[in-house]
Amino acid sequence: MTTHREPLHESLFRPATIGHADLKNRIALAPMTRVSATADGLATERMASYYGVYADGGFGLLITEGLYVDEHASQGYLFQPGIATPAHAQAWQPVVARVHRAGAKIFAQLIHAGSQSQGNIHTPGTLGPSAVRPKGEQAAMYRGSGPYAIPEEMTVEQIREVRQAFVTSARLARDAGFDGVEIHGANGYLLDEFLTDYLNIRTDEYGGTVANRARLAAEVSRDVAAAVGSEITTGIRISQGKVSDHEHRWVGGEEDAATIFSALAETGIDYIHTTEYRALAPAFDTGPTTLAALAKQHSGLPIIANGRLDDPRDAASVIESGAADIVALAKPALANRNWPHLVRTGQTLAGDLPADLFGPVANVKDWELVSPDNGS
Q: Residue 9, exposed/middle/buried by CB under 10 A (0-12, 13-18, 19+)?
């Protein structure tokens, strides 16, 4: 007689619903910059293979790399994919279909790179909340070098144009068949720049208090939810650290977190995705609470948590604690493209990443030729 065996770390494999998307499990592929589109931002067959491998490997949800939202200043990297035109949307359709055939859902992440842009075919300049250069230097792995440019301080009219660009892109993503859209409000890109005290020294309604600095992220969230939220899932990604400033923390600590997450909760979006260097680490020195738990506490929304959840015991603990509803994996997924299947069946996970898995998918040899053994 055969007995039924519960999967290891069972909490990770319970179905979940986030907005309009019914997920077969609680394991998501985190968004990662792959810069493997055509020069004009069209998704490619190689990208369909890249995302398809993870869908085959058992991930319930895939979140794309950031897709730029207009043909002006939003592009951040050369060969970055876009979702700014009908041609972009059409190019994503085969990618979405490939993921759906494997039984997974896929969200498009919408991004404006702001002053962290280091490669844009549409304009040599960058935009930001204020004319303040980001810390650090451009990433060599994504074809950048030297310090970031000092951005042009955005006018209120330019802010309105960016809000409209996010709405247009959300509608294009819906038309391409995506199950949801995630607004990129993290990691030092434009919306996070508005949120950041030292990058935003404005004196109008978008600067000064944390409520004012969170205004643009909330406005974009509200705009996108109103435009497509009745049809597909909508959410936003939030962080403290940045691509060029990993150690940044909100100066107001938990009070800032309460203001930011409460404001986002009122916009009509379906979820918040928090990303920290370590998802299980306290968000601030003043207490033990994680950023994911603060997001849950002050928004009441479903939470996706990301940040060094390599060990399935850690990933499961985030779910079991109630701090988050979904875990999103980046480096662990790169090392184990079938991480869910391996964990479910108790197999050994690879811990080391091949060097060529950083940077463009085009550097990954024969990526599209072999899907991983699904472990079942």
A: buried
